[in-house]
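Lab notebook, design round three. We kept the backbone fixed and only want residue identities now. Task for the bench partner: fill in a sequence for the structure below.
Input structure tokens:
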């Protein structure tokens, strides 16, 4: 397996507060990588740096051999990288269909002179419907986002993330706040929609981590404490002391 995403020596300070102090890890194509660690460890900050929302204080990110460091978020998105947010970022007044369609449109608008071609609206609508179905929202496609249940809103976020056809998906605590039943549904949906793609998932819920991840990196005090397959992480004494033991 080749290195698909290489995170090298990432440091991040927020006006003196050292949040990341040399984060290193690599992800292979189609790998499912989980990032775990205590509250405030810097997991979301790391995602903000990978997606281009924040600039690292130092360090580099290579995606398919290209250095992303100087590339803004929309360029990273065009290269195939998409994230969903820990905080719900859905247009509440728009329907499920409209929310997903705006992403499908922007993706296609970026590619070529899409709107001039006949049939393109039909194709956009078909792709939008297909994504709504993939995330389990076809039955509520024409319902405003504001009327969805919490679990459905989170599913819609993933639908919006998929709308730009990403190959690398970053999910920040996709099951946070969900009931057991919603979590179980979310796991199987995430498993399905990320098939054939590369996934990095931040999660506190160990059931989610152990059912989805091929590899786990533990972020602790701004650095990666351990990266390994789930069984090794589960039995790693340092990880137990630092994190799993706290549960
Ligand atoms: N924009 C910012 N400005 C200043 N400090 C920030 C900013 N974003 C994050 N921090 C700080 O960086 C640290 C790490 O925060 P971060 O949100 O990355 O942690 P996390 O691992 O995602 O935590 P959680 O599990 O609670 O989501 C915290 O101390 C936080 O207050
Ligand atoms: Mg976070």
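Proposed sequence:
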């Amino acid at each position: 397996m080749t290195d698909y995403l290489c995170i090298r020596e990432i440091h991040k300070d927020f006006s003196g507060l050292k949040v990341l102090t040399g984060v290193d890890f690599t992800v292979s194509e189609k790998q499912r990588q989980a990032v775990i660690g205590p509250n405030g460890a810097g997991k979301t900050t790391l995602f903000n740096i990978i997606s281009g929302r924040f600039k690292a204080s130092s360090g580099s990110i290579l995606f398919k051999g290209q250095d992303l460091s100087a590339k803004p978020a929309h360029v990273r998105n065009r290269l195939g990288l998409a994230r969903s947010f820990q905080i719900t970022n859905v247009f509440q007044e728009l329907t499920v269909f409209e929310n997903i369609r705006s992403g499908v449109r922007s993706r296609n608008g970026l590619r070529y002179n899409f709107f001039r071609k006949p049939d393109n609206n039909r194709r956009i609508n078909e792709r939008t419907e297909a994504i709504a179905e993939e995330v389990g929202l076809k039955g509520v496609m024409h319902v405003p986002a504001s009327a969805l249940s919490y679990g459905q809103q989170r599913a819609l976020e993933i639908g919006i993330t998929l709308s730009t056809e990403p190959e690398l998906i970053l999910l920040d605590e996709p099951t946070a706040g969900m009931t057991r039943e919603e979590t179980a549904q979310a796991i199987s949906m995430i498993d399905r929609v990320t098939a054939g793609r590369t996934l990095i998932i931040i999660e506190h819920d160990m059931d989610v981590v152990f059912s989805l991840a091929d590899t786990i990196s533990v972020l602790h005090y701004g650095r990666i404490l351990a990266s390994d397959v789930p069984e090794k992480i589960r039995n790693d004494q340092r990880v137990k002391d630092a994190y799993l033991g706290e549960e």
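Keep this in mind before ordering anything: The chain has a mean pLDDT of 90.
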